[in-house]
Design brief:
The chain is mainly β. Helices cover 1% and strands 47% of the residues. It is built from 1 helix and 54 strands. The strands form 13 sheets. The protein has a 7-stranded antiparallel sheet, with no helix packed on it. A hairpin with a 5-residue loop joins strand 17 and strand 18. The longest helix is centred in the N-terminal third of the chain and has 5 residues. It is elongated, with a radius of gyration of 30 Å. The termini are close together.
């Protein structure tokens, strides 16, 4: 018997190996056994993933962050060990800031928030950092300075047990502070920490004992009696610094320090560096504890449909209304789901907040249900769990000038990028995996352009590059450069970043083959009459279809011997495609062979042999050309 099967969409992406027998699932007929280095299209087809352009060489690995001051004024932040480099979108280094408090091991634990010309960086091990744009190519770094009008308007909290009293020896000058129980450590004498007695400020100086500290009075004290009414600055070396940050409803929010991991602090409305709770008026600062069924450490704060709080044990949100903003008197924090969030920053994507589950590589979407008026956290990695690995960094692309597709990228510890494509309005979602000759280390999206930090071994030397993904498949090589000569030439310079490395070279619709870059960065080609070449590292898109299954009189065919006798591909703007190792260089019969070939669209047929219980079709390329695959037809004999 013979059957014809036609797959017109690949929207389900690559299917986990444990799902390859699930012919009862719609995803079986919309997915693939393997889908590597492809980009899923909104229309259902797939195309060869974009290549990348080399922008700059970096001194080491690091982390990329986006900074957008205004449209046309975008920057790429590269966090390195104890330093920050700022690049423009063309890869030009604008400034380097040294002496930063972070080290390599902390880079991917840093959270950030930006407003106008200021970005704040937070980590539990150092003070909140303020990166200020002071000019079109100038930036400065400093510790966050809270407003000080005679009183330091920073958050305060009493970390000692409520019953512990503080007894100052006087009301002014240099005094001693005695606690009723041992409390002080040497950490309190290292950073000029502010302690308040009945709201009046003192600056700690030297440690005398575990119950006695020396201090300098900053504001004359009300009295010098022992009292339980005392507190200290919320963020300090002994109590740690905030691990989470966001802007929401015109407030800056900080949370998650070591001493009070479930503490949440909101600035005064419209005054981001003033956390004074004052009289708890609507515009005053907010100081609350996020209390769930277990003690939770706040990992991330996200501004989305609601103010969302992600902890290591559960997910919360702050209920608000369209008529009343969050205030000290109406803030209501509600626990929603019990999974817990890892250290990677959650991102807003396709109507939900995507996060990685704590101590897991399960990817979940935190989305609000109008039916239950509550949040759900469904797994979106169930069908492709094998491609997630250990997530390290992430970014979202909301489309670009060439393509409308939105995607979420996850860089994993193995150096690959798991790419998630979702169209909630069409109820489709799927994953694919991108790899390169090297390891992806970090990713970010700035001004609808996607940038990557890549580790590559070039001529046996490990190097790190800042690169930009192309907007579509018109660029088919990685770490590439395009060089144009004023007239036809055979020698092209400026490939020093790939010196002594074998590369692929293309010119228009010609693949010129492989060449080795000279030590001085020149490539000498044998072809003549060309004035522009692009050279870089090749990568191969691979697609393996799932075994065909079609109902027959005797039932489904999974596990029965079958033969795929003919494969029909529907391609668009394509010059080369291979099926089961058979390569087809596509040219129209009307082509003038003396000029460059034209990309073709339409149906391409392949005939193959062999019987198998699980026959599949392998679709790939032998040459680095654009390829859009819209459908795969299979003629199955059984």
């Amino acid at each position: 018997m013979k059957a014809k099967l036609f797959q017109t969409t690949f929207s389900a992406g690559e299917i986990d190996p444990n799902m390859v027998s699930r012919s009862d699932s719609p995803s079986y007929y919309n997915g693939a056994k393997t889908m590597r280095n492809w980009m899923m299209l909104d229309t259902g087809g797939i195309m060869r993933r974009p290549g990348s352009t080399n922008l700059a060489e970096l001194p080491s690995s690091g982390r990329l962050l986006p900074f957008t001051f205004a449209t046309g004024e975008e920057y790429i932040f590269v966090l390195l060990n104890q330093s920050l480099r700022v690049y423009n979108p063309a890869g030009v280094l604008l400034t380097t800031i040294s002496g930063c408090p972070w080290v390599t091991a902390e880079l991917f634990e840093i959270n950030y928030a930006q407003y106008a010309d200021t970005m704040y960086l937070v980590h539990k091990n150092f003070q909140v950092q303020e990166i200020l744009r002071t000019g079109s190519s100038a930036f400065t770094r400093s510790d966050l300075a809270f407003e000080d009008d005679g009183s330091v308007r920073q958050p305060y909290f009493k970390y000692a047990p409520q019953s512990v009293t503080l007894n100052p020896s006087g009301t002014s000058g240099t005094i001693t502070l005695t606690t009723s129980e041992p409390y002080w450590t040497s950490d309190y004498a290292s950073a000029g920490i502010v302690v308040r007695h009945k709201g009046k400020e003192m600056l700690l100086t030297t440690l005398v004992s575990t119950t006695v500290m020396n201090a300098t009075v900053e504001q004359t004290l009300t009295d010098s009696t022992a009292s339980t009414e005392w507190d200290e600055q919320a963020f300090s070396n002994p109590q740690g610094h905030p691990a989470a940050i966001t802007f929401h409803e015109n407030r800056l929010w900080l949370a998650g320090n070591k001493g009070r991991p479930s503490g949440l602090y909101g600035s005064k409305s419209g005054s981001f560096e003033n956390f004074d709770t004052a009289d708890a008026d609507d515009a005053d600062g907010i100081n609350v504890t996020v209390a769930g069924s277990t003690l939770s450490a706040i990992r991330h704060l996200t501004s989305a449909r609601h103010f969302q709080i992600f902890t290591d044990t559960a997910e919360f949100f702050v209920r608000d209304s369209t008529t009343s903003p969050i205030t000290p008197n109406n803030i209501s924090i509600r626990q929603q789901t019990p999974f817990g969030c890892g250290t990677m920053t959650p991102l807003n994507y396709d109507g939900a907040t995507i996060f990685v589950q704590e101590k897991s590589n399960t990817i979940r979407e935190f989305s609000f249900s109008e039916l239950t008026t509550a949040y759900e956290a469904s797994s979106i990695s169930l069908l492709a769990h094998n491609m997630i690995g250990v997530p390290k960094d992430n970014a979202v692309s909301f489309g670009n000038a060439s393509r409308p597709e939105t995607m979420m990228f996850l860089v994993n510890e193995a150096g690959a990028i798991s790419v998630y494509h979702s169209l909630r309005s069409e109820q489709v979602q799927g994953w694919t995996l991108w790899t390169t000759e090297g390891s992806y280390k970090s990713i970010t999206n700035v001004g609808n352009k996607t940038y990557i930090l890549v580790e590559r071994t070039i001529n046996n030397v490990v190097k790190y590059f800042l690169e930009e993904f192309s907007e579509d498949d018109s660029l088919t090589l990685d770490c590439s450069m395009t060089v144009t000569s004023g007239s036809p030439a055979t020698v092209y310079a400026n490939f020093t970043h790939l010196a002594n490395q074998e590369v692929n070279v293309v010119s228009g619709n010609y693949h010129l083959g492989k060449y080795t870059v000279a030590a001085n960065g020149e490539i000498t080609i044998t072809q003549t009459g060309l004035s522009t070449i692009t050279a870089g590292l090749n990568y191969t898109p691979t697609l393996t279809t799932l075994p065909p299954n079609t109902p027959a009189a005797k039932g489904e065919l999974l596990g029965d011997p079958k033969r795929i006798s003919r494969v029909i591909l529907r391609v668009n703007d394509t010059l080369n495609v291979s099926v089961n190792g058979v390569s087809l260089v596509i040219r129209n019969v009307t082509d003038d062979l003396s000029i460059q070939p034209l990309a073709a669209s339409g149906y391409q047929e392949f005939f193959i042999l062999g019987w198998s219980k699980d026959p599949t079709v392998d679709i790939t390329q032998s040459e680095p050309f654009p390829l859009k695959l819209l459908a795969v037809g299979k003629e199955v004999i059984f």
